[in-house]
Amino acid sequence: MGIVLFHTTTYAQDKYICKTGHVYFISKTDIIDIDADNYNLASILNTKNGEVIFMIPMRGFKFKLPLAEEHFNENYIESEKYPQAKFKGKFINFDKIDFSKDGQQYVEVEGEMSIHGQTKKIKEAGIIEIRKGEIHAKSILKIALQDYGIKIPNLVINKVADIIDVKIDLKYEPFTK
Amino acid sequence: MKIKKTYYFFRSANRILFVRLIFPIVILFFLLITTPAFSQEEDLESLLEKEIEIKPELTIATFKSTRLINSHTIERMQKGDLDFRISHRFGEVNTGVYELFGLDYSSSYLAAEYGITDWLMTGIGRGTMQKTFHGFYKLSIIRQSSGKKSVPVSVSWMQGVSLNSLKWTNPERSNYFYSRLSYIHQLLIARKFNQKFSLQIMPVLVHRNLVHNKSDKNDLYALGTGGRYKLTNRLAVTAEFFYVHGLNNTSGINYYHPISIGMDIETGSHVFQLMITNSSGILENHFIGETTGDIFDGGFRIGFNISRVFTLKKTK
């Protein structure tokens, strides 16, 4: 028992958490650009083994076009059925990352992304910046709707992009508990 | 001796308990100690799940449009959205080939409706029936929501006024302006049970300042109910029925309780609503008080509503 408790407490010091990360996405077409912001991205990063997890509540996406928000939730992402998107993965170049050194570092992450109830293996690149003990992370990625079983009806096919540009931006704080 | 003791232990009745309960626990402990990476991965996800607070979310899209078929729904235009509506009802199917089963006849209503805030909308329109001008507002009082403090239903309140602008049939009689007016007060209560099924109850009071006959009542109370069931994300079937208290059938014209079934088709910012209904009126004072179709005698008609939403003001 003592050994188990000891293990978990040491790990806790290596964990960093963010609950208010920013996700932005845009669907660009010739006819209309549809974009949304979400400030409820939650993530935990383990600097000891390079594991990272992201959770994004789908209802947290706020659109400039109210109708687009309704269609996003009701028709495309089906947020009642699949309330969140999830990414579970690891840093590939973990041995090269130094979390104690201030400055920017290039990172690569590999893992499983789940959106709309469908899971896909992905590999993405990003930037980590250490500033006064805080870890900032940024990434730009592309999501193909087809990969996650999101269908666009023929009638609006030229109003919704096949590939969505996504930007994430978050600031981790030491996880204490 | 020790070995023998263990042997006895296993022979005892406690053996089953040991194998089923204690042994797995011991194994689990070993697993936790020897493979931290495995337990770690499980941890990170559940750890984060514990940290996230699930925010209460307002239920959206209980219905696809601000109208179910003839009746209003609890839905309102969102702030800055303009809804341009065209509603059309053909004639009764039982009019036969000569009237092309009602297609030669038309009763229509054109409207512009706007969301002032996310909880208040207003609209104006014009209907061909009695050359009616109509204005209304709809207030969202309670929104259904999920989360810690969940609210089971959405409640909206609608009030409207209709102005009959037909020329007076008896110009020599003293006619007053207010005789042209009818008022509508309606409470709308709806619940979205799941992604597919929503149900609404809508009591309504229609007050007509002037009625056709002395025996007609000025106040009509009606209790309506309606619902929708989504077949796919963009296709739904709908139905509504009003029981109207105090319909007067003594003056030669028979009035009936309005009943309709319909279909909602959504394509981006358009919603098409196709329906079969026994009322030619599109406004409350017409379909509550002056529905003349007897469904048991082929007295129903086809019709459609088209709603096109334009976003005039983007949020933020």
Please supply descriptive tags for the structure shown above:
heterodimer, A: mainly beta, Lipocalin, 12% helix, disordered N terminus, B: alpha+beta, 14 strands
Gist?
The complex is a heterodimer of chains A (177) and B (316). Chain A has 177 residues and is mainly beta.
Helix content of chain A: 10-25%
In one word, what is the shape of chain B? elongated
Number of helices of chain A: 2
CATH C-level class of chain A is Mainly Beta
Strand order of the largest sheet of chain B: 2-3-4-5-7-8-9-10-11-12-13-14
pLDDT averaged residue by residue of chain A: 89
Strand content of chain A: over 45%
| Classification by helices and strands of chain B | alpha+beta
- Rg estimate of chain B, integer Å: 30 Å
Under CATH, the topology of chain A can be stated as: Lipocalin
Low-confidence stretches of chain A: 1-12
Largest sheet of chain A: 8 strands, antiparallel, barrel
The second-level CATH architecture of chain A is Beta Barrel
**Total number of beta strands of chain B:** 14
Number of strands of chain A: 9
